[in-house]
């Protein structure tokens, strides 16, 4: 009965076909860049904490909270990935692109073809059909954005004032 497929135990193993997404572990699954960024963040956190306690005579708990602030971005630079590149690679690539100069090309399309395609794509991207294009109110949208921005400014101002009042 070895030929009967119902009797055979089958094992399905799923794996990613994108081989570049796998991390090559250096220590406990972390890459060298991640470990360097973690150790650099810890070093800056400890050095700043010592400085705040012994030179500024700050409370130990407050010194810990303040010393964490500059350490977090340093640690996150080792873990941040976009399009398969780390933060330092992205900065280098953007710097090279700025140096590169202007790329010029000539189009064979007419302005009428472009305008009709632009209108169709604009309607599709905005989720609008010809029925509700007239209902779209740009001024209402701007008011919503202004309200959101003002609300955020008020919240941030309230937090800053409450921190100042707490420490005074």
Write the layout of secondary structure elements.
Layout: H1 32-54, H2 60-79, E1 81-82, E2 85-86, H3 87-100, H4 111-125, H5 138-167
Antiparallel strand pairs: 1-2
Helix pairs in contact: 1-2
Could you walk me through the main structural features you see in this protein, from its secondary elements to its overall organization?
This protein has about 170 residues and is mainly alpha-helical. It is about 60% helix and about 0% strand. It is built from five helices and two strands. It has helices spanning about 30-55, 60-80, 85-100, 110-125, 140-165; strands at about 80, 85. A two-stranded antiparallel ribbon has the order 1-2. Strand 1 (about 80) and strand 2 form a beta hairpin. Helix 1 (about 30-55) runs antiparallel to helix 2. The chain is extended, with a radius of gyration of 28 Å. The mean pLDDT is about 75.
Instruction: State the share of residues found in helices, binned by percent.
Output: 55-70%
Rounded radius of gyration (Å): 28 Å
Strand order of the largest sheet: 1-2
How is the biggest beta sheet arranged? 2 strands, antiparallel
Coarse structural class: mainly alpha
Helix segment tally = 5
